[in-house]
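REQUEST FORM: STRUCTURE PREDICTION
Request ID: SP-0412
Submitted by: Lab K.M.
Chain count: 1
Length (residues): 307
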Amino acid sequence: MARPKRGNPIHGWLVLDKPKGMTSTQAVAIVKQLYDAQKAGHAGTLDPLATGILPIALGEATKTCAFAVESEKAYRFTVRWGAETNTDDAEGEVVKTSDRRPSPAEIEAILPRFTGEISQVPPTFSAIKVNGERAYDLARDGEIPVLEPRIVLIEELKAVEFPDESTTVFEAICGKGAYVRALARDMGRELGCYGHVTELRRTRVGPFSEDMAVALSDLQEASKLDAAMDFLKVKLLPVEAALEELQRINLSPADASRVRRGQSVLIRGRDAPILSGEAYAMSKGQLVALGELTKGEFRPTRVFNLS
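STATUS: Completed
RESULT:
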C-alpha cells in the first residue's frame, strides 16, 4: 500500500525575490515549508551573493521547470576593477591585482566582443559537474577543477553606470548556462585590469519579472496571520505561467478526458492541420497536458493532475 504524500497538494509558481546571503536550495526549502507543499523546485540557481528573481515551482508546476530554466535571463550587476578573485565575486580570495583602471570609453569598446555567441569558461566555484562532483565542492576541498569552455549566448550587454573609476554597473540578457561572474572576470582580463562582481541582481527569468516578485520576509510575516494560507495562495501564479513560449490549444471536456488517459486527440478548427511542435492543452481554464502537435493531432507527453 502506497504511503500518503506529506504536505498539501498546492500547485503553481511563486516568483521569489531572493535575499542576499541565502542559497537557492535554502530559499526553496523555506517556501516549501511555508506552503506545506508536497513538492517544490526552482528554475535556475542564484548564487548566495545574488538577489532577485528565483521562480519556485510547487506541486505540478515542477513538471514545467525545464521551460523556465531554458529561457533567457536578465541581470544587473556591478563590477569592481583592479582585482580578480578565485570565486569571481566579492566572497572569494584575491588572486590577481592591478593598478590600472579602464576608462568608460575603453569599457564600451570591448562590449561587442562579449555579445552574441561567445566562448566562456564557467567559474571554478560553480555548480558544473566534474566526474560526478560539483566544481565548487572540489574547489572548496583544495582541488582546482578543469572546466572546459562552452558556447553561451549573451543577447545584450551594456554599461549603465560609472559610479567611480573602479566601478561599473552593467545590465545583461543571457541565454541558458551563461555566468555573469565569468563575464566580469573575462572583461577584466581583456581590459588588462582584472575584475570581479560585487553586486548581482537577476531581474527576469523568462516570463517571470520583478513586478511579479514577492519578498521572502513578506511571506514569512504573512505566515503568522490567521488567514496565512489565503495570502500565500494569492501570491501563486498558475502552473502554465512558465509555458508562455509554447503554443496553446483549448480542448473540450471530452477531449481533455481522453488526453488525461494518455490518448491523442484531433485538433478542430481551420488552422489545426498546419499546427506543429510543442504545445500545452487547456480545458475550462485548467492545464491538462504538455504534448506535441503533428498532422492535426495533439499527442500528450506529460499529463497534469491539478485536482
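NOTES: DSSP finds eight helices and 19 strands in the chain.
Reviewed by: T.R.
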